[in-house]
Amino acid sequence: MTEPRKKVTIPTLFKKAADGVPITWLTCYDYPTAYLMEQAGIDMILVGDSLGMTMLGYETTLPVTMDDMIRHSQAVRRGTPNIFVVGDMPYMSYQPSVETAIRNAGRFMAEAGCDAIKLEGGVEMCDRIEGIVKAGIPAIGHLGLTPQSVSLLGGYKVQGKGALQAKKIVDSAKALENAGAFMILLEMVPDRVCKLITERAENCLIMSLGSGPHAHGQLLIYHDMFGLYPRFKPRMAKVFGNAGEVILNGLKSYVQEVTEKTFPQPENWFGMKDEEYEELLDLLG
Ligand code: KIV
Hints:
There is one protein chain. The protein is built from 12 helices and 8 strands. The N and C termini lie far apart (60 Å). Helix 6 (126-134) packs parallel to helix 8 (163-179) and helix 8 runs parallel beside helix 9. The protein folds into 2 domains: 10-241, TIM Barrel, CATH 3.20.20; 246-283, no CATH class. An 8-stranded parallel β-barrel has the order 1-2-3-4-5-6-7-8, surrounded by 6 helices. Helix 5 (98-112) links the parallel strand 3 (84-88) and strand 4. The longest helix is centred in the last third of the chain and has 18 residues, at 243-260. By secondary structure, the protein is α/β, with parallel strands linked by helices. 3-methyl-2-oxobutanoic acid (KIV) is lined by residues 27, 46, 48-50, 88, 147, 185, 187, 209, 221.
């Protein structure tokens, strides 16, 4: 018999890093997928505001609201009692002020049972991180390609390829760590910059999304991993199984079988006893 899973906590994550075992982190937005991730032994889930694109079909993450995020985080929490669930703070849920940031971070914890929150930005967001951590909420920073600033960044591009921009990311990582972030996600940052930041981190875990192998762990977007996002496939997204193709083939078979009247078969419907049917006909005259 397999051992029941233990709840993943911040000390569990630091222990993995200390033992040199990479942390596994995936996006997830719904109950059935969270249930599967629980069985698969994933360490962390990000209920990302990427759900605006992958689940709701928006062009960017910007239209996503706190209520969208809470609804999806609750569904994920119901599917996984043990994975460390991170609520992703959507656009304008933390930018306006420290107080707004604390209130909305608190909603993820109180209403959805999340274990931590993540927000995008560097030095300029340190006061938000500090306020949230002071309120007793574990906080994760996000540097490099930060999708909520896609317009400012000029598109979904690698960040920190030049020395000056890379220095800014290295400095921001240290500032976020000093502000109290226990983890920082580096998205689409060159591998050597990620390595430098990981080596310099003292009390902070560094996670990579397309930023190479030297971090304490890896994050991927679930929909990219399984061929479920039709608009584009970023380079860092290895396809681990083409569920999109499996589902499409299943849908085509359904259309064919219904059209050809080979579905449904007796095992797919419910009958009634002859005497009940006779009585029904009598009742109907
Ligand atoms: O929303 C999300 O899934 C994210 C990832 C792109 C890191 O923030």
